[in-house]
Amino acid sequence: MEGDTFSGLGNGTQVDGKILQTFQKNFDQVQNILDQNRLLINEINQNHESKIPDNLSRNVGLIRELNNNIRRVVDLYADLSTSFTKSMDASSEGDFSGALKPDGKAGHKRNRPA
């Protein structure tokens, strides 16, 4: 698949197979985190409904873990957005080589307005 190009965006733009692999990898990571979050939320709800002090105390750590997972999802989507933008910029110039770093990550983080 490496080195292949695909024109599946509907506008005639070709996408490098390596870029698609990177997107798929990130989407898989996001899905795994979201699945884990579903389990955490279920456990948090059960602990809350039980009203057992130890279970309620455990929720503090579970909620922290949930918040960290949400941050990871946001970061992964930000990386995907940056990668997609860079790949589209590169494809409009006919050059895929600068779209992603060799490790498959975007070259920079997105800038947020102050």
UniProtKB/TrEMBL annotation:
Keywords: Biological rhythms, Nucleus. Residues 14-95 form the Protein EARLY FLOWERING domain. Transmembrane segments: none annotated. The keyword Nucleus applies. The keyword Nucleus applies. It comes from the Eukaryota. InterPro entries: EARLY_FLOWERING_4, EARLY_FLOWERING_4_dom. GO terms for cellular component: nucleus. Residues 86-114 are annotated as: Disordered. It is found in: Nucleus. GO terms for biological process: entrainment of circadian clock; positive regulation of circadian rhythm; rhythmic process. Belongs to the EARLY FLOWERING 4 family. This is Protein EARLY FLOWERING 4 domain-containing protein.
